[in-house]
Design a protein that fits this description.
The complex is a heterodimer of chains A (352) and B (323).
Chain A (H helix, E strand, L loop, with lengths): L1 H35 L14 H6 L8 E4 L4 H6 L4 H8 L17 E2 L4 E3 L5 H15 L6 E6 L7 H11 L4 E7 L2 E2 L2 E2 H4 L5 H6 L4 E5 L4 H18 L3 E6 L12 H5 L3 H7 L4 H7 L3 H27 L5 H6 L33
Parallel strand pairs in A: 1-3, 1-4, 4-5, 5-9, 8-9
Antiparallel strand pairs in A: 2-3, 6-7
Helix pairs in contact in A: 1-13, 4-13, 5-6
Chain B lengths: L1 E4 H15 L3 E4 L16 H5 L4 E2 L5 H12 L4 E6 L2 H4 L3 H14 L9 E6 L6 H4 L4 H5 L5 E3 L4 H12 L5 E6 L6 E4 L12 E4 L4 E5 L3 H16 L3 E5 L2 E3 L3 H11 L2 E4 L8 H12 L7 E3 L10 H7 L3 H10 L3
Parallel strand pairs in B: 2-3, 2-4, 4-5, 5-7, 6-7, 10-11, 10-13, 13-14
Antiparallel strand pairs in B: 1-8, 6-12, 9-11
Helix pairs in contact in B: 1-8, 3-5, 9-13, 10-11
The chains are: A alpha/beta (352), B alpha/beta (323).
Chain lengths: 352, 323
């Protein structure tokens, strides 16, 4: 117990710093998104959904994979991927993590094995292969994939759970359950709202993490990472969370659609980050204030820089679709000989 | 050099590739199991172990995703669909993820995957085991589409595809499985971004791929022997990217064009080749194309015989171009 307390203490400031980095970057970008209209891509801001990613951050290794759904910024930053690369990507600039071609929804940073994508559940299932390779190569690295409660409704999810269980793959499936698929509540989408039953049907361990306090979130996700790394078996984590931002863009879609008034009443006064800051010692607060100031400067600087940076040349961009390259195992190509003679009898199939 | 069947050539390609690189993984429904994909994966599991060669549940979509993920971390997966029609379940993975991957990452990340899709023809294959949607996939940027026409070409296409750094779908016709060809033993790599001029000629360019090459070679022999028409034969081999240069160069020389395609006519490889040629070459005669009719594929043999391409009809129409 003591060790656990110490471990949280060890990472406490780092986690708070990560949360602030995510929150401030989101708020700052939300404020300038529409008036400027220079970030010409749909952005799914993750304000409110930054806690689990931040608590996971200390346990991530460079070669672990994170494969995230469209609301990915928290996981991108928690993996240690560069803030300025992300901001430039939103501005569509060549200096972006993906030369500006991906935008927010398909953000990636391959050097640190971070990928994301917007078509529901694709990343969830691609984690099958990254984790298969990690196990096959005996690397002791793991794959973490993030999905929303909406994504859980795609058929491929259940094929994926079956294969992950069958091959005993080192994956943490994280479902950030904010109870809404765009503006449609879970109650309107299914009669089967309990993920536990569905997950356990595939013989996969299920964990439910509530947003109670930071240390609980930290301890729970730590246990999951340790277990997947040591046992090489998948774990499914359902994390209860609340999206402060609208589904897409900075607009407050609650005022427009009133689709989750009950949820707002339940969550609006909850702020684990601010609650936790109140408990921080004076000395640490001073340190954090300096770190927060630096984060604010970094975000502002990244925006200024992104605006000045150049766009990719269109002709260059076209070449990125298909790169003709081969493994070094091919020393040279053979010249095809003309030994095939035509008019051969076609294969007569046996029944079936 | 040894004469081998298409299936044996494919089996050789898989064996040689797995021996060459321990990160080559082969899987799909029926792999390492009784049917062993018409015999082509026979013995692989015993030789290379069940971690590298394995049977699967029928989850085409997630299996495609699994191949995609494997390829991001150093493996070279080969996913096999013993019947192409089931591969359609994996459209989201192929279209929204695999074909887009290089572009959206700014070419910083690649997916070297080989997907092998077998197309039936003959006894009972009917409308659900004989479809050939090669042109659908050739529409996409970012993915290589191959359709080998002979045993040695199949071997070369498979080996080069497995050791390429881009994703590839290889279409394969069951009608060619027993066809034979003399070929080199050992590793065999072809430049799978180029078409193959199977025969030089001066009077007409005959274009084909996959099973139509078997017909075209026969037609060409007949044209030469009985009508003194010397055809040049372009075996496309790659449908995406198309090797425009080779096609245009040949059509520029012969000024006549005919194409045979085992597939539906609209938005097809035939219409694409005709478009490329007519935009770039002044032909002496109208281009000809021989494709499937605009109909699903019948099950009864008597109707099936009428559905598929008829060599005599094609021969007669080609001869007419010279009258």
């Amino acid at each position: 117990m003591k060790n656990k307390k110490n471990l949280f203490k060890k990472f406490e400031l780092k986690i708070l710093e990560t949360i602030y980095k995510i929150q401030f970057s989101q708020k700052y970008l939300m404020d300038i998104y529409h008036p400027e209209d220079l970030m010409r891509c749909p952005i799914h801001f993750c304000l409110g959904q930054e806690l689990l990613a931040s608590c996971l951050s200390p346990f991530l290794r460079k070669k672990d994979f994170i494969l995230s759904h469209h609301r990915s910024h928290a996981y991108y930053l928690s993996k240690g991927c560069p803030l300025d690369g992300m901001v430039s990507e939103f501005y569509g600039k060549k200096s972006g993590s993906n030369f500006g071609l991906a935008g927010s929804q398909e953000l990636s940073f391959s050097k640190l094995n971070f990928y994301s994508g917007t078509i529901l559940s694709g990343m969830f299932s691609i984690a099958l292969g990254t984790s298969f390779s990690q196990k096959f190569l005996k690397s002791n690295n793991i794959s973490i994939t993030v999905i929303g409660d909406g994504g859980m409704e795609e058929g491929i999810v259940y094929e994926t759970l079956n294969l992950a269980s069958l091959h005993k793959l080192p994956i943490i499936f994280i479902c950030e359950n904010n109870r809404f698929s765009v503006h449609t509540s879970m109650k309107e989408r299914t009669l089967s709202t309990k993920f536990k039953k569905k997950i356990e049907a595939f013989d996969i361990e299920y964990h439910h993490i509530k947003s109670n306090n930071l240390k609980d979130i930290f301890d729970n996700i730590h246990r999951c990472v340790q277990s997947v790394r040591s046992k090489s078996k998948p774990i499914f984590v359902e994390f209860e969370t609340f999206r402060i931002a609208g589904h897409v863009g900075p607009e407050n879609d609650d005022e427009e659609f009133h689709y989750r008034d009950e949820d707002i009443a339940r969550w609006k006064n909850k702020d684990l980050f601010q609650d936790h800051l109140k408990k921080i010692k004076f000395k640490d607060k001073k340190i954090l204030q300096q770190k927060f100031k630096k984060i604010e400067n970094d975000v502002k600087h990244a925006v200024t820089k992104a605006k000045k940076d150049k766009f990719l040349n269109f002709e260059e961009s076209k070449k990125l679709n298909f790169v003709k390259s081969f493994s070094k195992k091919i020393k040279k190509f053979d010249t095809q000989k003309v030994n095939f003679y035509g008019g051969q009898q076609e294969t007569k199939l046996k029944p079936y | 050099m040894k004469e081998k069947s298409f299936i044996d050539a494919t089996k050789d390609a898989l064996n040689l590739s797995m021996r060459l690189d321990k990160n080559v993984i082969v899987f799909g429904l029926g792999v390492g199991n009784s049917s062993n994909i018409y015999g082509s994966t026979e013995g692989l599991k015993e030789k290379f172990g069940k971690k590298r060669v394995f049977d699967t549940p029928s989850s085409e979509s997630a299996l495609t995703a699994m191949a995609a993920g494997m390829s991001l971390n150093g493996l070279r997966p080969v996913l096999i669909h013993q019947r192409f029609d089931f591969m359609i379940y994996s459209l989201d993975q192929i279209v929204n993820w695999i074909s887009l991957w290089s572009y959206k990452s700014g070419a910083k990340s690649q997916m070297p995957i080989t997907i092998r899709a077998v197309i039936g023809k003959g006894w009972g294959q009917g409308p659900q085991h004989s479809k050939s949607l090669h042109s659908w996939f050739s529409h996409l940027p970012g993915i290589s589409v191959l359709y080998p026409s002979s045993p040695s070409e199949a071997k070369g296409c498979f080996m080069s595809s497995i050791f390429s750094n881009f994703p590839t779908i290889i279409f394969e016709s069951r009608s060619l499985h027993s066809t034979k060809e003399t070929m080199p033993e050992g590793n065999y790599f072809l430049d799978i971004t180029k078409s193959f001029v199977r025969k030089n000629g001066k009077d007409i360019t005959l274009v084909g791929f996959g099973p139509s090459i078997n017909d075209i070679l026969d037609i060409s022999k007949n044209l030469e022997k009985n009508f003194n028409i010397n055809a040049e034969i372009i075996d496309l081999r790659t449908l995406n990217p198309l090797d425009d240069k080779t096609i245009i160069k040949s059509a520029n020389k012969t000024k006549r064009l005919a194409i045979i395609e085992y597939g539906w006519p609209r938005c097809s490889i035939s219409s694409e080749v005709i478009s490329i040629v007519t935009k770039n070459v002044s032909l002496k005669t109208k281009p000809l194309s021989f494709t499937w009719p605009e109909s699903h594929i019948p099950t009864p043999k008597i109707l099936e015989d009428k559905f598929y391409f008829n060599k005599k009809v094609a021969l007669d129409k080609i001869i007419k171009l010279f009258k």
